[in-house]
Design brief:
The complex is a heterodimer of chains A (112) and B (115). Chain A is mostly beta strands and 112 residues long. Chain A contains no helices and eleven strands. The model of chain B has no long low-confidence stretch (mean pLDDT 92). Classes of the chains: A mainly beta (112), B mainly beta (115).
């Protein structure tokens, strides 16, 4: 049972444009959501998170949006840069259960 | 360095052998997690340590898997009688207090290959 789903295995975006990565979840108990970025042969790097009491969180070029009614979150990267090319994972957890449940990842390629 | 450190970075072993993987968390982080990532899949939770509390072992796939942590420092993940399906990248993460709303910071993982 895949509780966190990233339905797009890959995405290509022109440099300078906006990249939008999507994530859906099924467990309504999830109340904390994170995005991680992963380069080959490295561990995931934390990017940005959002609590379920918010619907938006920004950090520089990265913005995460949460739609609780749709059980959907998205990561916007603007403007996209070549160094953003990586695999992006969304993850979720719920209060009292600190383990993260991960999606299967989306490979983002920024085209120069 | 200041990050999570894992060793070895790569391990190749024969089916049936035991392996031990090591994780050094970020200094001061009380919570430590082990995950694994099989080829083409997301990260799968294995076990969670928080301070001196009993670990959450709910993600361990079989009794061949065990983990220990000494205080709030080093952790070892042991896989006994390895099988080919154990081949994966094993990732360790730590967080400051282990509560929700605390991002987990990952090491670079140990790539385990079972022949």
């Amino acid at each position: 049972d895949q509780q966190v789903k990233q339905n797009s295995p890959s995405l290509s975006v022109q440099e300078g444009r906006i990249s939008i990565l999507n994530c859906d979840y099924t467990n309504s108990m999830f109340d904390y959501f994170l995005w991680y970025k992963k380069y080959p042969a490295e561990g995931p790097t934390f990017l940005i998170s959002i609590s379920s009491i918010k619907d938006k969180n920004e950090d520089g070029r990265f913005t995460v949006f949460l739609n609780k009614s749709a059980k959907h979150l998205s990561l916007h990267i603007v403007p996209s840069q070549p160094g953003d090319s990586a695999v992006y994972f969304c993850a979720a957890s719920n209060f009292g259960n600190e383990k993260l449940t991960f999606g299967t990842g989306t490979r983002l390629t920024i085209i120069p | 360095g200041a990050g999570v450190s894992q060793s070895p970075s790569n391990k190749v072993t024969e089916k049936g052998k035991d392996v031990e993987l090591r994780c050094d968390p970020i200094s001061g982080h009380t919570a430590l997690y082990w995950y694994r990532q099989r080829l083409g899949q997301g990260l799968e939770f294995l076990i969670y340590f928080q301070g001196n509390s009993a670990p959450d072992k709910s993600g361990l796939p079989s009794d061949r898997f065990s983990a220990e942590r000494t205080g709030e420092s080093v952790s070892t993940l042991t896989i006994q009688r390895t099988q080919q399906e154990d081949s994966a990248v094993y990732l360790c993460a730590s967080s400051l207090t282990g509560g929700t709303n605390q991002p987990q910071h990952f090491g670079d993982g140990t790539r385990l290959s079972i022949l």
